[in-house]
Amino acid sequence: MQIAAAAAAASLLAACGQSGSPSTRPPSTFPPIPIATAVATSQGAWATLAMGRLSEPLNTFWELFHATPRGTWTLSTPPGVASNGGLFIAPLSSSVITVAFGPSLGLRFSPLVRTENTGVSWTTGILPDAIARAPDALAVGGTGRTWALSGSGATRLLQSRDLDTWSVAGTLSPSVVASEGCRLLAATAVATTAAAPRGVAVGGTCTSGPRAAILLRDRSSWQNVGPLVNGGASTPSEVLRLDVSSQGVAALIRTGSGREGDLVAAYGSVAFNDWSVGNPLPIAGRTVVSSSTTSTGGLVVVLGTPDGSRIAAVSTRGDANWDGLPALPQGTALVASNAGGGFDALTPQATTLVVERLAASGWVRSQAIVVPIEFGSSH
Hints:
There is one protein chain. By secondary structure, this protein is mainly β. It has a single domain (5-13, 24-370), classed as YVTN repeat-like/Quinoprotein amine dehydrogenase (Methylamine Dehydrogenase, Chain H), CATH 2.130.10.10. The chain has one helix and 29 strands. Strands 13, 14, 15, 16, 17, 18, 19, 20 and 21 form a nine-stranded antiparallel beta sheet that branches. Strand 2 (44-52) and strand 3 (60-67) form a beta hairpin. The radius of gyration is 19 Å and the shape is globular. The two termini are 20 Å apart.
């Protein structure tokens, strides 16, 4: 599958009737949201991370991996499109996933692909704007409707039923929820939900306020239904992840400012109420490297320390507090939950992905996947 420039241009003219513009986020009190991520279900998992020569942007390629219920990982990167700009995933099941390619090499829009057979075949589409650079910038509902965050300045929420014809479902400006406990800066996550009249929820960044930004849209306005954070005191906050499942809502929230803030896990009902907010995990000068969701509706984060080592913490719905995992293997980029309730540490080593499974004795190597990367192909 190869999306040629002429075909992409034709699709762009058909979609929305306007040209795209590059996605830019207004200045924030937070470092950029890391887009390395894994999403787990009871029947398997999907993960995406950067590989290649990570110090060279044109030789850094984002790859997609799939894990079976038994926890065997395989390479599933869609062919034919340069992945230097990152991959943004929206799994619908263990075999159905939609993937957006972040713009790179001068592109001002985002190619899309979808598979319904775990990557055996793919259908293509075009998002006529640059997808927002956040791990949950793409979402797909059970009816097949796709939602995406994009924009320059104020973030736009787009929707489509066929991956090609898009319409603007809403614009989230800084004044959207100023009167509801949050001064909104930008949208950072989108998820599908039956709890909202429009079937969609959006997470965002608040410059101040006691409540994190999790927004539901009715016919004409947005309502902030996010949890109180920082004990209800006014603070900057940013929703890094927003996951909605049959078990309820899970949100990973960064509070405070810079690299001295905290990470908070918040869990709510399917109606976006009855929030449970756990004790904060201090960032303490560390860098958020990646984040993942578990098959039981929990959250996993990987933090990088100043000395180059990395640590991981897990939060579950039953206990929203954080529990540390054993010290990670050197260079771990991502910790993914597997269907059996365990954890896999994924470590890219140039063109090889090393998978190590958490056992009673610590992390034990279970796989080494060779990834065919054509260095220089993006020049």
